[in-house]
Structures are given as structure tokens and as C-alpha cells.
Design a protein that fits this description.
This protein is of the alpha+beta class and 366 residues long. It has eight helices and 20 strands. The strands form four sheets. A six-stranded mixed beta sheet has the order 11-12-13-10-4-14, sandwiched between helices. Strands 15-18-17-16-19-20 form a six-stranded antiparallel β-barrel. The chain has a five-stranded antiparallel beta sheet with strand order 6-7-8-5-9, covered by helices on one side. Strand 11 and strand 12 form a beta hairpin. The radius of gyration is 21 Å and the shape is globular.
Length: 366
């Protein structure tokens, strides 16, 4: 895979039988055993993902909180220390530059976790907005300093407990705290994830990642833990109705159209994209992202046309896969709002398959 970055744990994955694919400029494990087995492990026990390709940006300074409230659609300045906040980051026209999680580390210090494929674009956009605002804030790209492991599933807390993270089950959803590993390295543990299950994401120094991953795998195997790749990560997030940038969120799909209205705090003072989003809300949406199931066995792939009862194309598929839990094809599509009231089908290479709306397909873990 020429011109692809390798994860710090590349050799660990290779030794454990990973198959690799290029993704976001990285050589990433797509699966180890099978996507089906890995998917079910996360739903029933636990799965360990290496997501060290994600970017980390430290934002600090006297006006860091005010800057992030200006940059992002969600409310950041009012969040308490130790909170994690999911938010889209918008253009002035309401389209999405990226979606990310903000971890409040201190009164004037925040860590942002951004999508790997958008890393360079995000940094440029953030710096442009910082310069234009004139606020006293500093941006530091710390992506090379961190490895990021995601331990997901109903047994995740139990596995961390037997690995020495006493009391970690008490950490609330979308909260984070720091712990010290046996070797002295600091790990930031966050009760967040991208699977629809309970779980944790662990930020730690690159040099400490191999020993922690090995310990988690060794002590977690008896709990049903499996190493998991991108294949299961995608099917899990789609089952749970979670967006993937470049699919359900793009520079032409707004948070409101993507069903993320809960993240858009129109009541706070001016932020990038507010005017466009306010107008969109007042005028009503022309199109909307929806999730669907199919009764047959064929998967609707990205770009497949969605058709109404009159045979008119009213939308297109954004993502599609097979759901191991529902045992049927599932997906998402961007569809004209008036068409949602009638019968819809998807064009699968000339054959129309009735489309059943479901939002989201599965209940998210509390």
C-alpha cells in the first residue's frame, strides 16, 4: 500500500492475523477472523479496535472556550471539565467540515479528536477561523503523540477492571479521566465510542500502546474479547444509526439534514454556520438522511437511486451493509422530504427493492 501511513501497532495487528486495507491515508486492519464474528463479539461481549489513525488537536489559551463555541455548533464553553462533547464543525453555508469529539481537559484546555481523512483540512480550517476571530487561542497538532484504542461492548468495563483500572465502571457516559499505567505512562480513558454499545476510548502515548493492547487482549479473551477491524466498525455504526463523514455528513449535508439537530445549539451566540442553519430550520428541510432496511438479501450500495411510487428518483443511498443482528441489508439514504410520506424502493442494478424506513435500526446502549 504505497504512500499509506502505518499504525504504531502495525506489527501487533500483523502478528494477530489482520488483513489490511487503505483508509484515510492509513494502512488499517479491516478484519482478523471475520467481520460477522467481530461484529457479534462487540454486541455480545467486547471488541478491541485500534483507531490511532484519528487526529488529535490540543486547543488552549485564555479564549479557547469562546473560540470553540464560535467554531462548533454544539455548546462547548458551558461544558464542565471532564466532559466529552460530540459536535459537527460547519461551513458558513451549514455544510459540515467534519464531525468530532471535544474533551474538556481544563478551564482553558481542550483536546479534539478528528477524522483521519480530514486531519489536514480541519487544521487549516481551525487556524483560519482562529486568525479571523482574533481570539487569544493556540492550536497544537498532537496526532503523532497519541495512540487510540477503543474497547467496546457490554464486557468492556469488566475487562478494564481486571487490567487494573479499578472503579472504571463508575465513569459516566461522555465523561473522561486520566489514569497512570504500571510503566508510568498516562492514559486518558473516555466513556465514548462509535458502535452503539457501551465502551471506552483510551488515549495514550504511542510507546505504551503495544503493552496495553497485549494486556487487554490477554486478559479479555476469557470475557469473549476479539480484535476488530474497520469492517465491523462500519457495520456496527450503521446498525446504530451513527454517521460517517463523507457519507451521512458532507460539505453539502448539514447537521439538521443528517438528523443531528440535538447537536445544533441555535440559542447560543453567533457560530460558524448559524445563519444558514437557522434559515434551514425556519424554512423546513428539503432533504433528509434516513435509515432503512431491505427484505431481500442484496445490499444497496452507495450511490444507488431511491425511487418513489411514480418512478421518480427522489434520493440516493449513502451507506449500505448487511446487519448481522437484524439479519438483513440496512443502509442510509438522502431523500427529498415530501417523498418520505409515500412508498419508496431502491434501484439495485435495474431491479426495484422495497425500502422500509427505520431510524435508527438498533437501540443505542445507555
Amino acid at each position: 500500500m504505497p504512500n499509506s501511513n502505518k499504525l504504531p501497532l502495525h506489527d501487533f495487528h500483523k502478528a494477530n492475523g489482520a488483513r489490511f486495507v487503505p483508509f484515510g491515508g492509513w494502512e488499517m486492519p479491516v478484519q482478523y477472523s471475520s467481520i460477522l464474528e467481530e461484529h457479534k463479539a462487540v454486541r455480545e461481549a467486547a471488541g478491541l479496535f485500534d483507531v490511532s489513525h484519528m487526529g488529535e488537536v490540543l486547543i488552549h489559551g485564555p479564549e479557547a472556550a469562546a473560540y470553540l463555541d464560535h467554531l462548533l455548533v454544539n455548546a462547548i464553553a458551558s461544558a464542565e471539565i471532564g466532559r466529552a462533547i460530540y459536535s459537527p464543525m460547519c461551513l458558513e453555508n451549514g455544510g459540515v467540515v467534519d464531525d468530532l469529539i471535544v474533551y474538556r481537559m481544563g478551564a482553558a484546555e481542550f483536546l479534539l479528536c478528528v477524522n483521519a481523512a480530514n486531519h489536514a483540512k480541519d487544521l487549516s480550517w481551525m487556524q483560519t477561523q482562529a486568525d479571523a476571530s482574533g481570539m487569544d487561542v493556540c492550536l497544537e497538532d498532537q496526532s503523532d503523540a497519541y495512540a487510540l484504542l477503543a474497547l467496546q461492548g457490554p464486557k468492556a468495563a469488566d475487562i478494564l477492571e481486571v487490567c487494573g483500572f479499578a472503579g472504571i465502571a463508575e465513569l459516566k457516559r461522555f465523561r473522561h479521566e486520566s489514569r497512570t499505567l504500571a510503566g508510568g505512562a498516562t492514559v486518558r480513558i473516555c466513556r465514548t465510542g462509535y458502535t452503539g454499545e457501551d465502551g471506552f476510548e483510551l488515549f495514550l502515548p504511542v510507546g505504551a500502546a503495544d503493552s496495553l493492547a497485549s494486556m487487554l487482549l490477554d486478559r479479555g479473551t476469557s470475557y469473549g474479547l476479539r480484535l476488530c477491524g474497520l469492517g465491523a466498525r462500519d457495520s456496527l455504526r450503521l446498525e446504530a444509526g451513527l454517521p460517517l463523514y463523507g457519507h451521512e455528513l458532507t460539505e453539502t449535508i448539514s447537521p439538521l439534514e443528517a438528523g443531528l439537530e440535538w447537536t445544533v445549539k441555535l440559542g447560543k451566540s453567533g457560530f460558524v454556520g448559524k445563519s444558514a442553519l437557522l434559515k434551514q430550520k425556519e424554512d423546513g428541510l428539503d432533504k433528509r438522511v434516513v435509515h432503512f432496511k431491505l427484505a431481500g438479501r442484496r445490499i444497496a450500495r452507495e450511490g444507488a437511486e431511491v425511487i418513489d411510487a411514480a418512478g421518480t428518483t427522489v434520493g440516493s443511498v449513502l451507506s449500505g451493509t448487511h446487519s448481522p443482528i437484524l439479519n438483513c441489508p440496512i443502509g442510509s439514504a438522502l431523500i427529498e422530504v415530501p417523498a418520505l410520506a409515500g412508498g419508496l424502493s431502491v434501484d439495485l442494478r435495474g431491479q426495484r427493492e422495497p425500502l422500509e424506513l427505520a431510524s435508527p435500526p438498533l437501540h443505542l446502549a445507555e
